[in-house]
Design a protein that fits this description.
The chain has a domain of 107 residues: Orthogonal Bundle (Cytochrome Bc1 Complex, Chain D, domain 2), CATH 1.10.760. 49% of the residues lie in helices and 0% in strands. α4 packs across α8 and α6 crosses α8. About 6% of the residues have low confidence.
Amino acid sequence: MDSFEINKIVAAILMVALLVIGIGKFSEIIFHVEKPKTPGYAVEVDQAITVSTSTKKNIEEKIDIVALMAMGDVALGEKIFKKCAACHSIVKGGKNNIGPALYNVVGRKTGAVTDYKYSKALASFEKEWTFEELNGYLIKPAKWIKGTKMAFAGLRKEKDRASVIKYLNQNSDSPVPLP
């Protein structure tokens, strides 16, 4: 192949490139589109819609404790409680460890163990450990009571929480009747 043939190939490639660029520039001139000052679209939302979604969230947060407790199993709760036993005792007359003793916890006022130093948040919580309170607390303690010193990640599964609550309720002098 001589140099004349190579020059023709290079010239053809350059002409195609110039043609593509030229067509692009020419089409921009013909089909000119003005860009908006601020990108995006303004979306108008009715206040009624936002109110209904917030009401829906409140309904979802309300848990049917009867159905939840029906899922629980005391034997499974005892098995899962082994995670808790690293910090809490569950036996009658058991001593406080890193966390307070949990014998008789269901139905007891929060922060009621006299010889245990609770966090300020838990000591001033002013509620009883009901099935609902225990369920919420066991999901994620730090989120349920802001400022608690309990550094437990929580139990995600509903069945696990219900089982632990049933196990805690069973370990009492007078277990609270299940809902």
